[in-house]
Amino acid sequence: MSDAKAKRTSKSTRNSPRLFEADELAPLMQPLQLLQARTQTQKHRPKSEILRELRRLRATSTSLDDEEKEKEREKKAQQTGINVKPLRTLEQLDALRLTRHRIKQLLDCSSFDQVVSNCFVRLNVSAPNAPPEYRIAEIVLVEQLTEGYYVDKLATNIALHLRYEDLVQRHELNDISNMAFTSEEFELWRDNCICQAIEWPTTELVARKKIELYNALNSEGNKLPTMMLHKNGLLTTVMPMRPMPRGGLLERFGGKYPWKLQRPSPKEKLNASDDAAATDASGNRVVELEAINKELELQRKAKLG
Predict the structure, then answer these.
(1) SS3 content of the chain, % helix, strand, coil (to 5)
(2) What is the pTM of this model?
(3) What is the mean pLDDT of residues 115-133?
(4) Is-contact 266 257, C-beta < 8 A?
(5) pLDDT recorded at residue 129
(6) How distant, in Å, are the alpha carbons of 57, 69, 151 from that of 63?
(7) If DSSP codes are grouped into helix, strand and coil, which group holds residue 58?
(8) Phi/psi class of residue 145: alpha, beta or left (left: φ > 0; alpha: ψ in -120 to 50)?
(9) Number of helices (H) and strands (E), helices first, in the chain?
């Protein structure tokens, strides 16, 4: 009987799950506790720390692609004699800035698409009736619209596809500013490039764009044929123009008033015209009275003399 009971107890202990002691459970639970602590710390990680880490990772080349890019840059530097480095300061990026006035000068150039691509502009991204808010945007593509519009008295149908933040949108030339980049706009653009993993412009791009802009602005050969055709009347303007917006003089040429225009109503215009007529009638009456007074004064003097 005792042997059968021993066999049953041994079988039950063999089938039952293993029971660990407290000393054995501590090292087994340690990885789980570390994982929980790491998730809790990462849950409330500040944004500044994430941006700092992204900048550090961006600065160090750890992947094979980065190493290959570095090798290509070194080869280009050896071939062209230019030390290829990414632009890190506002002054360096300002060399690639195009103003609205400079883009207007380049519109007659035959290689306009190639010249302005990969350059940067100061773009107004706010709504028409909202206060202006500017961003640094890169020119990605050039498009010709079906209808023309006016840019500071210049008729054109060119629109630019600009990349800023995580968007690529089409904008007309009136949205581009003539002012320089600010330090706050540059900081925002740099953080966005790091977060979006956008490759920074290099010194090699600055050198190439300077040559292209110089050739486009100083080569009159590209402009002479169209100028001659316009002069001889052989080239006609067939571009349909967008109807002029009704408003003030500044609004018609793409500008914006810093205040809301208050135009008089038809009743106010009628009242103003009636007042003007009344003032004219009163002015004429005063002139007549003065002439009568002069005649009476002359007659009085003649009698006394």
Answers:
(1) 55, 15, 30
(2) 0.55
(3) 91
(4) no
(5) 78
(6) 10, 10, 47
(7) helix
(8) beta
(9) 12, 4
Nearest of 199, 200, 223, 201 to residue 210 by alpha carbon: 201
113 close to 142: Cβ distance less than 8 angstroms: yes
Q: CA-to-CA distance for 160 and 72, rounded, in angstroms?
A: 30
Task: Tell me which of 56 and 162 has the higher pLDDT.
Answer: 162
pLDDT of residue 302: 79
Kindly report, residue by residue over 189-207, the tens digit of the pLDDT.
999 998 888 888 999 999 9
Residue 172, beta-bridge partner list: 159
Structure tokens at 269: 């215009």
Contact by Cβ (8 Å): 88, 186: no
The average pLDDT across 241-254 equals 59
Q: Where are the beta strands (DSSP E) in the chain?
A: 120-124, 134-151, 154-164, 167-172
* The two structure tokens encoding residue 211: 């040559």
Percent of the chain with pLDDT over 70: 55
Element (H, E) at 231: helix 224-232
